[in-house]
Amino acid sequence: MIRLENIEKVYRTDTVETLAINGINLHVQKGEFLSIMGPSGCGKSTLLNIMGLLDEPSRGQIKIDNQDISRYSDKQMANFRNEKLGFIFQSYHLINDLQVLDNVELPLLYRNSSSQSRRALATAALEKVGLSNRTKHFPTQLSGGQRQRVAIARAIVGQPQIILADEPTGNLDSAMGNEIMDILINLNKNEGTTIVMVTHDESMAQKTHRLVRLFDGSQVQ
Ligand code: ADP
Ligand code: ADP
């Protein structure tokens, strides 16, 4: 589903050059739930952002669903990203002055769907994460675990084939973290969604199919 070949990423400024990713080869299977671990600064977020087409590698090739992304224009890339990928972040990234339902509808605004069908899809996504009773709340009126569930609903509302999650349980206590993991595991099992998750938490990583460890931009396991 995601194929990375000889990926390198160098961040350059006037004074420093950082080799953030140093020759990664990785194949994420369709339907796989993969976790990525490693110490702070080892390149986890960079790798996830490259997989998510949010950041370009300095070298190497990415294929998603057998499409060679490197030939895409920015617009094609944005469309592809919107259609195929869903993102979840540690700090939720919800819009605080929009109600829950409107937050979840956001990714659908790029598509030519009617407001009725947007509403129906967002309502269904909120049902899947068990938040049907919070559609008119604002994010600030929710707990951290509930906010992350809204973020998951937003990530899945467009029915992406792939979910990329950057420390989705990082701001949550272990009970809420486990709830979030259960939702992701069910999504993977029941809908066949491919998931790549960065985590610091060994116990969360153990629940996934495969663990990749990074150190200084290289894969060590
Ligand atoms: P992790 O997610 O594992 O903590 P990152 O992918 O955020 O690691 O960062 C990997 C390395 O790249 C770090 O050494 C970091 O300092 C560097 N880095 C990340 N983003 C930038 C940037 N925008 N400019 C320069 N260096 C960066
Ligand atoms: P943190 O670990 O500091 O909370 P996040 O996990 O929220 O960071 O974000 C991880 C990466 O994704 C960052 O490099 C950030 O710039 C990027 N990012 C965050 N939100 C968005 C967004 N809505 N769209 C695109 N990129 C984002």
Mean pLDDT across all residues, rounded? 95
Q: What hetero molecules are in the model?
A: adenosine-5'-diphosphate
N- to C-terminal distance = 20 Å
Unreliable segments (pLDDT under 50, ≥5 consecutive)?
A: none
Q: How many strand units?
A: 10
Principal-axes shape call:
globular
> What is the rounded Rg?
17 Å
Pfam families: ABC_tran
Keywords: ATP-binding, Nucleotide-binding, Translocase, Transport
InterPro entries: AAA+_ATPase (IPR003593), ABC_transporter-like_ATP-bd (IPR003439), ABC_transporter-like_CS (IPR017871), MacB-like_ATP-bd (IPR017911), P-loop_NTPase (IPR027417)
GO molecular function, one term: transmembrane transporter activity
Précis, in short:
The protein is of the alpha/beta class. Helices cover 33% and strands 27% of the residues. Helix 5 (144-156) runs parallel beside helix 6 (174-191).
